[in-house]
Protein 1
Amino acid sequence: MPASDMFRLSENIRDLDYLLATYYIELPAEADILAKAASYAVGQTIGTWVEVPGVTAEMRDRHLGRVVKVLEAPPVDLGTQSQETSGYFMQIALPTVNIGPSIPMLLATAIGNDVSTSVQAKLVDLEVPDSLAEELVGPRFGIEGVRKLVGVHDRPLVLNMIKPCTGLTPEAGAQIFYETALGGVDLIKDDELMGNPSFSPVVDRVKAYLAAGERARDETGRDVVYFPNVTDRADRMIDTARRAVDAGARGVMCAYASVGYGGLQALSEVVGVPILAHYAAAGPYFEGPGTGMSAPLALGLLPRLAGGDLAITITPYGGYPLRRLQYLKMIQQLTLPRPHVAPVFPVIGGGVHPGTVETYMGELGNDIVLGAGGAIQGHPDGAAAGADAMRQAIDAVMAGRRVADAAQEHPELAHALEKFGATV
């Protein structure tokens, strides 16, 4: 096969069934990037590091990857600029017929074979053709479905995660649930560290927490939706999720990086209620500077394609060194319109308190969930006051007021700002 047959222009690829994967790679300045990109395209599709029998012209036409773009970063056109290494963005077209409606095979194809092809490259972007997006389905509920479930259609939602993170019996956790549900919270979830342990089985928690929620509703008239954490080995996770739903749960949570994106996809196809997708254990996917994938893909696009209806996100404001650009791109991957795939409700977690509300609503708008844990359970006046303070801050921003001004009228909000700070 002529070397030139490994390359295609964007115009000849865009309407065909290819997954377009863009990578960043650094090589010695004298390296042949076009040869390296072509080798990678072969290695991720039909080839190996040596020629093998059995490859036909029909197979190449249908299953072979192609190089679409190679861009140098920074763009250098003259040989007079001396440098030891060069950075490149290379875009590879991967035939979707090789992948099918499978997130595990998508990952295996896009980043899983780089050792055998001797490439250390970071996946930084994916363009999914309509045909594959339609097969993957994505969220069954998404923002619209979750809002319908909760009955709130305009403002950000308030979510609390039960604290302490683990070690609570169902009865002890139910008392915290009750005290929290008395305040202005919409959703309550388990902490990601509370799974299905012997001291607090998921189904027992569901029964105890829902009873606590009914007690609170009798006093407040407000309903609170509980998301139990069903993260586990895939077979046990699906069984636990089904039993949790049978016990009355109207949503479930799983840590997709722990169970695998395919585990989230399987759960979404069978559970029949909204899924809160948690990023716990996702760091190794994106923290490497030259391998893995970018955070907007790992925490944005992929949990969306796999069927998460809400997705907890990382922000630059909670102590984690995520770049602000990557955080905003992650939100875009979750929420911007995409053919055949509904938008996901971003859940802002990690250091969220009333003093952060103006920043998050200012940057992201109203279609967000503000996940406050310690700022609710750790409020000086108790969990209900902590939840009320979050709602008071949201209501102030919705009304075009400064949160600090609204605090003069609400002691719960004032005490929260005094303890947790006025701004991020």
Protein 2
Amino acid sequence: MRLLHTSDWHLGRSFHRVNMLDAQATFIAHLVATARERSVDAVVVSGDVYDRAVPPLAAVELYDDALHRLAELGVPTVMISGNHDSARRLGVGAGLIGRAGIHLRTEPARSGEPIVLPDAHGDVAFYGLPYLEPALVKDEFGVAKAGHEQVLAAAMDRVRADLAGRPAGTRSVVLAHAFVTGGAPSDSERDITVGGVSAVPSGVFDGADYVALGHLHGSQVISDRVRYSGSPLPYSFSEADHRKSMWLIDLDAGGAVTAERLDCPVPRPLVRLRGDLEDLLDDPDLARHEESWVEVTLTDAIRPDDPMARLADRFPHTLSLLFDPRRTDDEEPDASYAERLKGRDDHEIAEDFVTHVRGAGPDESERALLRAAFDAVRADDVVREVAR
């Protein structure tokens, strides 16, 4: 059986205020075309279909279009809810939608109830484990401790129990939305830590022929049988080195896995640049990044004037600007900001603050402005005191 494994669509999400809906629509078209051209037997979507519990209307319309296109193609789809989705909203109409070959698994109680799809070698049982928030599902699974490992282990116990009652040779695919030990996170995933622990060992999924994971946005191989597809589009600059893709998985008659990584269309490459402003503007080697989405960290000791506009002249798709100024020779590298303020009066603290955030102290006209401001505040305090 041939599977197309994807996850973390995050429909409705933007990228640093850039609307990604067109890019998401392009991905959906790519997904459907790939399923058709590569003769896919089933599509699996491992959670975070939407970016938030109540998605914008345009995102709902795109989701609806995706379901119709997959149904028209005749390719069964198995989909679970992730930690960004509202499981109840995503699961509305699941029974009716299932008749069209789109199988939604959003209820933790149904973790042990598979969707069974046949191929030439027998049955493949697809078990959908939606995102399991430990505090909300611990009673359902009868676990004493509300932790990710405990609830996922209990859900997998149900999977293994159901699988044991099926005909010999039945192969299994598990969809799960979780942080599995060995995976590398990025800045764009929502934290799911509970009790200081968010990761679960991959051994929790023992017994499954293939585990299609969602949650982490980088495509990753935990083991031959346990993989993250990653998000099809970037949602933070921490993903600048990601190769956005899906997994094309072939399960043979004995459940052995063969995997091929298929690239997804991305509107623009991402790049992180670092250096002094003039160097970044003049460096000819950076010409290749002029059409990329750019995050810049400026290291100028003194913050330059109007840096964003100047950067945008060369890199028109600059979306993020950070500052990490070089320290001057007279700074104490290990001194905290609070320590540097000790013994200073209000005016000196204000000057020190300007130096701290800009990289250089105020000039004489700025000092005069600060003095005038403090004098006005003190005068106002005196007037209020007299009025009492």
